[in-house]
Amino acid sequence: MTALGADFALVAADLTTRAGAERAAEAVRERFGGLDVLVNNLGVDGHVPFEKLTEDEWHRVLDHNTTSAYLVTQAVLDLLGEGSSIVGIGASVALRGRPLGVHYSASKAALAGFTRALAKELGGRGIRVNLVAPGVTETEDEGLPPQLAARLTALTALGRLGRPQDVAGAVLYLAGDSAAYVTGTTIEVDGGI
User: Fold this and answer.
1) Which of 1, 33, 119, 143 makes an SS bond possible with 6, Cβ 3.0 to 4.6 Å?
2) CA 120, CA 157: separation in Å to the nearest integer?
3) Predicted confidence band at 4 (pLDDT cuts at 50, 70, 90)?
């Protein structure tokens, strides 16, 4: 990364806890002094029938997908100045729901509400808050069974599943100056599913 002119630091922290979020914020404060962009991208999935959904599994998904965004954003808030941007990573199922994922859908819907409300609260400080909601996205480490991939692909208007760069492009747009008058919105990156 340094060959590209980037400066970065890796910090091991459990962002589902206040102590972990504050540890990460302190590392940013010490190394960089402030933040221009925060991307809340911590998340986990879960595939459990509702009648077998345990309280522990419910909290595991909600803590990773929603509570972490609250804790990290609050921990770094004093590092964000006018013109900065917060981008969350939601999911298109927040609007549609998904069987075997009530807790996942609920966590991503909560993140959408968090985004809209926080945008209204931080707008006066010149801080923008938006959400990217990907659909099914292919990654190198997570191959879908071929029949499921074909079924999901057929549901999209573009005839393919998402790629990581599709999501990254939306995040870069919302983080940058081209979106200087965009806040409180969700961009669905789902191929028109």
Assistant:
1) 1
2) 33
3) low
Measure the CA–CA gap between 29 and 79, rounded to whole angstroms.
Answer: 7
pTM over 0.90, yes/no? yes
Distance CA 170, CA 59 (A): 29
Closest by alpha carbon to 112, among 129, 135, 137, 136?
129
Sheet with 128-134, side-by-side order of all strands? 35-40, 80-89, 128-134, 186-189
Candidates 3.30.565.10, 3.30.300.20, 1.20.120.1220, 3.40.50.720; correct CATH number of 36-189?
A: 3.40.50.720
Measured between alpha carbons, how far is 48 from 54 in angstroms, rounded to an integer? 9
